[in-house]
Every structure is written in structure tokens, then in C-alpha cells.
Amino acid sequence: MEQGEAAPPAAEEKGGEEEDDFGYRLFPDRNKKPQSFLVRSLFTFHNRCQLMLRMTLDTNPYAQLLLEAMKQSGCTVFNDRHFSCEDCDGCVSGGFDSATSQIVLCQNNIRHQSHMNRVVTHELIHAFDHCRAHVDWFKNVKHLACSEIRAANLSGDCTLMNEISRFKFGLKGHHQTCVRDRAIRSILAVRKVSKETAEKAVDEVFDACFNDLEPFGRIPHSKTDAKRAYKDFQNRDRYNANL
């Protein structure tokens, strides 16, 4: 969670569960009637969010690879349909709403292009997992843990520079520690479970999910790594098409 990205689940589950709102409290605009384009165009946050989103989708190799992978998996992503810039709780930057297959971008909390790049990538990984697997976001905390591990591992959340900016330093195993910690934080943000429950879920699936590098094929520790992964993905597609 990028202080943080969260994955709010299906809207239809909200009303029937008294003990857990599944994280929707963090995304109050999910329950409001959509505003007209004219009204939304008057808000600077919304305009800025849309511009940064377009920049990410057009230029960021992490996002471009994921968009291509989603398309090949039969889940083409459309800007106007699958992304929504909204005001959110002060502690979150984005989320994936599996009920609508929408990525929520918290326009009041995303203020820099690099932050937008990470949020979009993080949530696209959730969307990719939702597309390729039968993820039970609501009832199976291990499924949520696995996707959060993958998102933290592959989105650039735990790059050296990002960790330094958080005043976190380490050498051996630091990347794995960062991924584990951020996955646990993400679960706790959207589920009313104990820290012990979140930690147990993450630890039980950590090795398998940390080593699941699809669709990147590697851990992209930098934009350069992501560009190479995107090129390799494109070449793999061309190779498979010629078989």
C-alpha cells in the first residue's frame, strides 16, 4: 500500500456484511451519484488526475506492459471505463474495485507524476490478477495477501530510492522485508482483521506469490528494468505468434 494503495472489493458485498465494510470507508465517492463532466471539469484535482493518468498510460513502461498483458488475457483496459479519479480518505492513494473492474485513483492524495505511476501500476497488478485468476477478494484473505505481495514486489513500491525516501535502509533481504510489510499494511487498511491474521496470511503465501513474476518475468527494480521487461514481453508475443 502506497500510504496507500488499497483494494476495495465488490460493492454488492458491502450492504450484507455488518462487521466489515471491506475498505469502502476509504473511498466515499464510490457511493455518490456520478457528477456531470461539466461539474467535474471545474475541479483542479480531477483535471490534474486525468492528465497524470494519461501521461502514465502513454509513457510508463510498467503500466504499458500490464495494459498489453491484460489485453492478451482478454481484459482490455479502457481509460474512460476502467479508471476513476475520486476523492478518498486521507490515508489511501488508490484501489481496485472488483465489482466494477475499476481502478480508483485518489485525486486528492496523488500529487506527483511518479506517485501516479506507482499507484496505477500497483492497481493494474490487482486488475491483472483479477483477470487471470479466480480471486476471492472478500472471503479469502490469502488471495488478497497474494495479490498485495505481487503488487508491492512488481510495481516499484519497494525500489531503493522509494525506501530511502521513507528513511528505511537495509541490505540483505531488504526488498523482501519491504514487500512483506507493505502487503500487511494493505490488508489491514481494507479488512477488519488482526495484525496477526494479516501477517499469517502473508507469510503462508509469501514464497509462491513473491516468485510469481507474471507478466514481467523479472522484478523490475527500476524504469530501465521495466522497459527491458516490456520489450521482452513484446518479443515473446511475436515469437509465440510465429509458432
Outline the secondary-structure elements:
Layout: E1 5-6, H1 37-41, H2 44-59, H3 61-72, H4 79-82, E2 83-86, E3 94-97, E4 102-106, H5 113-132, H6 141-154, H7 160-165, H8 174-190, H9 195-210, H10 223-241
Parallel strand pairs: 1-3, 2-4
Antiparallel strand pairs: 3-4
Q: Please give the radius of gyration in angstroms.
A: 17 Å
CATH class of the largest domain: Alpha Beta
Mean pLDDT: 83
**Strands of the largest sheet, in order across it?**
1-3-4-2
Uncertain ranges? 9-19
End-to-end distance? 40 Å
CATH topology of the largest domain: Zincin-like
Number of spatially distinct domains:
2
What proportion of the residues is helical, as a percent range?
40-55%
Tell me about the biggest sheet?
4 strands, mixed
Shape: globular
What's the tally of helices?
10
Order of helices and strands: EHHHHEEEHHHHHH
Can you tell me the CATH architecture of the largest domain? Answer: 2-Layer Sandwich
Number-wise, the strands total 4
Q: State the secondary-structure class.
A: alpha/beta
Strand content: 5-15%
